[in-house]
Every structure is written in C-alpha cells, then in structure tokens.
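Example record used in the benchmark description.
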Amino acid sequence: MKFVLASYGSRGDVEHCVAVGRELVRRRHEVHIAITPDLVCFAEAAGLAAVAFGPDLQSFVDAVLNCWTNRRQIQDLAKLRREAWELHTQCWRELSTTLTSLAEEADLVCTGLYLEESAANVAEYHDIPLATLHHSPMRANGQLVPMRVNGQLIRTLPAPLMRSVTTVNEWVSWRTAKKKVEDAQRRELGLPKARGAAPRRITERGSLEIQAYDEVCFPGLAAEWSKWKGQRPFVGAPTMELTTDADEEVASWSAAGTPPIFFGFGSTPVESPADTLAMISAACAQLGERVLVCSGSSDFSHVPHFDHVKVVGAVNYAATFPACRAVVHHGGSGTTAMGLRAGVPTLVLWTFPDQSMWGAQIKRLKVGTARPFSSTTKESLVADLRWILAPQYVTRARELATRMTKPAASVAAAADLVEEKARLGRFG
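Model output (structure tokens):
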C-alpha cells in the first residue's frame, strides 16, 4: 500500500511520524513524507522518500518565540503576530500543494498534530482515509488542566467548564484559520465551504486520531473519550532510540562517577549559553551533583569548562536517561516520554505553552516539577532539584516507568492501526 505522511516542526515534533513511516517501510509499503526542510535528511536516513515544505525551522521557532516571550508595545506585538501568522499560512499552503501531489493514488494520509486541518482537506479531496498522530491531547476534554495566561498559573478548572473552554478554543482557532487560509485551500481543491470546526469534522469523518503518548500520563482521559469507540487509541510515544557518536563516551563518563543530572534544551536555543551553563554548574556544585548537558540547538562551544560538567551535542536518550539521577529539559513530548520511561524524576523548564502542559502533568503525576525557563535562577534550580531528588519522587518515577509503553511497542501499535485503517478504506 501507499502511505503519505506529513509533519512540520522540530526533531521531537516529527519523530513520531518518521518512526511510524520507517516501520511501514520495513513492512514493505511505499512511504512518502512531506517534512520540515531542515529534517529531510533525517527522514531519508529512516528510509522515507522525503519532500520539504514550509520555511526553515529556525525562522518559524524565532517567530513563535518572539510572540510568546517578548513584552513589547501593543503595535510591536501585533507586528510579531502577523509575521508568525504569515509563516503559518506559508506552511499551510505549501503543505496543501505538496500533499495534494504526493497523495495521488495513496491509500491513506497520516499527519502530525500541526497542520492536520490542511492534511484533512487533502485527504477529503482524494477521498482517502486520514490518520493523525497527536503527541498531546488536543481534542476538547474535561480533564483538570492548569490554565496559564502569559506564563502565569491562573486556576484549575472543573471538568465541565474545562470541556467548554477547550471546545470554544477549538472553534475560535478554526474561525481564524477558516477566514485567512482554509476557505482558500478548499476553494482551490474544489471542496465545499467548511461548516463547523476542523477538529469536529475530522472526527465526524471517521478519521483515526492516534494518541501518541501514554494513557497513564492523563488519568481519566481514555474514559472520557471512550464514546468514540476506538477512534482515539493510546499507543505511547513512537520514539526511535537512535544511537549517536557520543554514546560510548557518555556511558564511560557516567560510569566513572556518581550518576549525573541530565540537562537538555531541545530545538529552542537558550539566550546566553555561557550564563545558562554557569547557572547549572553553580547549582549542581552546591548540591554535589555531576552534570551532563545536551546542547541541542544552543552553542556551548565557547563557554567555560567545569570539572563536574560534561557537554555533548546529542545523545541517545533511551540509553542515557536510565543512568542519570534526574532529567531536566524543555518539556517536549518525546523527551518527556523518554524521561518517564527511564524511571527518573523530571524537572521541566518550559518556554512554550504545550511544554508547560507537560510540566503540569509531571507535577500532577508527582514525578517531578516545572517552572518557566525564563524565571529560573540558580536559587530556584537548587530548590527544584532538591525537591525532585527526594525519595518519594524517585520511588514514584520508578513505579510509573513500569506502566509506560516501550518505544518499539508504540511504533508497532501505531503502524498496525494505520495499516488497518488503510485496508478498511480500500476494501471496506
């Protein structure tokens, strides 16, 4: 069968789709993917035929980061938001064009969370099934989720009110997209005007909405969504556990002393690598802890050296995290899953709202804590690390790890689901 995948974002955002695509290739299917320009080589290395769409990742990250973190005059913020929306529109339109061509004679379109609306319209145009991979719970739900405005915790809402808030948010987001870009896409595809929010239409069309995270991370969510009769299955995070050139060196360094605390920054560069490393070094020195820093997109090449700190570009989280005392990271869904699977406490230092959501869940599960990266200081870092290294957090993290889905099982389950959905669409 022919599968067409679409995913835009950072390495952590697209890895779920690439992992499932690689498994489908292993099962001898034809697989194509439309992906972030920066990650074409990553997808091709996994055996997928890859095509780029949208702006380069750093341009997009910078635009979104400016909107969320800057405190400027209203006119400046309006300009930043316009720039971010223009990039979003570019992504939407380029995905539509690219995917419309790729999906000719395809059996199924599978998309990541971002831009699923554009992919859904293309699947409707070709009259083929759609599968979505959600790395966090994005459909309206009534779970108790802390609400944040400008990074500040406002309150925890009762379930019925939370469900209403998320439903309204879906509708408002759709109305914005409808006016600015979706109506034009559907007109170009010869589809009738959309009526009703895109998430609702995706569900009502019978699309497969795979929850690419573990059910245990959101207690009560599976029961709330049970009315959809298997349409929103939980499979765990389909991560790939890829090895790196630094793995042996890191394993040797870790084994030569006490287990380190891991710090990782993902695809969002820190503003001052030197100041960040100095803060981490000082906090962990005060606690008598060794430190392993994964620089990600940040440049730590010209910062001072500290004897108890090792800096690497990238490591295999699956192999590294279990050898650490705790993990400190930005709160990306894939990194969070790997930390929970490793059975060690977590400190989330988040920048974006979706990362704050994972930080809130870490606190709710009592396996760690979280705070905005922008408000982190040496003193707060010392306090947070002391908090999560307490025996009760270590014990709960180990217990939760036993209930997490293994990566290979997650990948296989997701691939099984999309295969079955494609077969039903083809022969049902």
